[in-house]
Amino acid sequence: MPALQWRIELRNFRKYLASNLLIIGLLGVGLAATIVIFGFLKALVFDPLPFPNAAQIEMVGLVSKESAEDLESPDGKLVAQWQQAFQNKASPDSQPWFAIAAPATVNVGADVQAGRAPERVDGAFVVGSLWAQLGVQPKLGRDFSAADFQPGMPQVVIIGDSLWRSRYQSNPGIIGEVIRINGQLATVIAVMPENISFPQREMLWTQAQLAGAQADYGFNVFLRAEIEGQRSAHLAIMQNEFLEWQKSAPNGVEYLEVGYLPMNNWLVDPESRILAGVMFAAVCLLLFAVCMNAASVLLVRLFAEQSQNALRLALGSGWLPLAMSALVQSLLLAACGGGGADGLQKWMTDQRSAVRPKVVPIPEPKIFRPEGYAQGDMVAPFSKEKLAQALTREGVQAVANAALVAPELARRKQALEAFPLDSMALVGSMVRAGQTVALVKVNNLLYQVRPGDYLGQNFGRVTKINETEVALREIVQDAVGEWIERTASLQLQERSK
User: Fold this and answer.
1) CATH of region 412-491
2) Per-domain residue ranges for the chain?
């Protein structure tokens, strides 16, 4: 009987193949959307960091006047003061904080004997026991210790698993080997486990030189408080050092105090969390709508088979075979719709492991190149010699201008200098005593003009007369008030016939 029932239900499944595929498609879309959005929520909101101590760690920064909600990164000078203050308050090996400047480009030098070419990798400059505070143990070697950050200590470096595999061929003897980073020798003290990095995809971590190259870098500072009361005490130490630093910092007035926020909020802000919650609610509503659509399709089929079920009951089939029929159909639909969940879950796991916080890259410091001053032997622009030269030039120009216009001001004016030049008209010429004389008409009066006479109101002296033109030399002022000479003329006005 069960075998016969299975054959009947398989035949019914093929009979309603289109509706069954529609139900499978609707349920698959709804379940896939729910799994995807829940995976993103789990990776970005509920559990964004794969570190055991992530819930105890908070980010510390400076609260600015412009935006009290955002925290600014302190520079290396303030981080150095915090480091000294905590060393004075507690044991050097029990520091409750660490700082990191990342991402930064680190140059790994060549190794001729091992055949390793120089390489540029993403790295970070660290202050404090980074991995101990995060709760992660190196795969090989040890974490940074307080002694590594004392003045004069040799440079040490921790490398990531990917760099260890690609550059050093997974050599377990790398611990204690000396490599060159940024032109300095450094000893490898640890190799981190696979898929472990902080804060992004760094492959190398080394001590920060707070009194040297990294003094002006911006650091992300993190404070670990295992119990509630420790946070207030640690922040009070940081606040006191901040007030001292603010007195000598040129831009200290931009900040109000030392603030903090949970490290998870540093990765995902509250607005993003709210948005993710809204998206999850929307997907849940979508799944509910899909289930309702699938139920409606099944109800339509149930009403379509109502007469067939009534006939089966009349023939003595009973309710049990009908219930078995519904169960078999449900199992067939579930078997068809649940095959891709494992692959989707694997994809979500890979995406979660690849999520890293977004940190603004630190720009590389610019190299100062002094330029020689080649104009030292010349006259300074604001010196007395420069002023004397300018006054001398102006005096020479003034003398030249005065020499040009002074004779004109000293002579007696002639009659035609009372009229503008454009009010005069040349109407003809004649020769008297071997000299050409122009006939100029002004206000219906005719005047005889000879070379050397003056016309117009701009000291216009006649220089040449011919049958068609009278040429003049005028003295006028230019745009800056200097007296200059220019030429002008009167053209013969011919009467139209």
Assistant:
1) 2.30.30.830
2) 2-48+284-354, 54-267, 379-410, 412-491
